[in-house]
């Protein structure tokens, strides 16, 4: 059996992304690639996005649970506003960009879940028809 108790505040910045991101799953010993789950906490200042630009995944399902503030998610159809204590799911093949707008008054804190944890992200370029 394995159990892991983690405090995100005690973890170092996970990678070289320009925003504050802490990988809970890596800290618990799960591989970044080819793991059943990726779990990260993002602190997005006004004007920051979750790290990846507009993109989609082949196989990964993403879920963004907003802990504090509100998260904006741009899709080809519309822009969603996800408030604190709400969750936004993104199915594989569905383009999105998660961000805290520059006009925001406060930072946004988000728990991001990706399953499986695979590097299958592809850039998405919206067209005028989107």
Architecture overview:
By secondary structure, this protein is mainly beta. The chain has one domain: Jelly Rolls (Sandwich), CATH 2.60.120.10. The chain has one helix and ten strands, in the order βαβββββββββ. The strands form three sheets. Strands 1-2-9-4-7 form a five-stranded antiparallel β-sheet. Strand 5 and strand 6 form a beta hairpin. The longest helix has 4 residues. Keywords: Metal-binding.
Give me a quick take on this structure.
By secondary structure, this protein is mainly beta.
| Secondary-structure element order, N to C | EHEEEEEEEEE
Major beta sheet, strand line-up: 1-2-9-4-7
DSSP helical segment count: 1
Main sheet specs:
5 strands, antiparallel
* Overall residue-averaged pLDDT value: 92
The second-level CATH architecture is Sandwich
Q: Enumerate the spans where pLDDT stays under 50 for 5 or more consecutive residues.
A: none
The CATH superfamily is Jelly Rolls
The CATH topology name reads Jelly Rolls
Number of domains: 1
**What kind of assembly state do the chains in view correspond to?**
single chain
Q: Termini, distance in Å?
A: 48 Å
In total, how many beta strands? Answer: 10
Keywords: Metal-binding
Protein name: Cupin domain-containing protein
Pfam families: Cupin_2
InterPro entries: Cupin_2 (IPR013096), GPI/OXD (IPR051610), RmlC-like_jellyroll (IPR014710), RmlC_Cupin_sf (IPR011051)
Show the helix and strand layout.
Elements: E1 20-23, H1 24-27, E2 38-44, E3 55-57, E4 61-68, E5 70-74, E6 79-83, E7 87-90, E8 97-99, E9 108-115, E10 121-123
Antiparallel strand pairs: 1-2, 2-9, 3-10, 4-7, 4-9, 5-6, 5-8
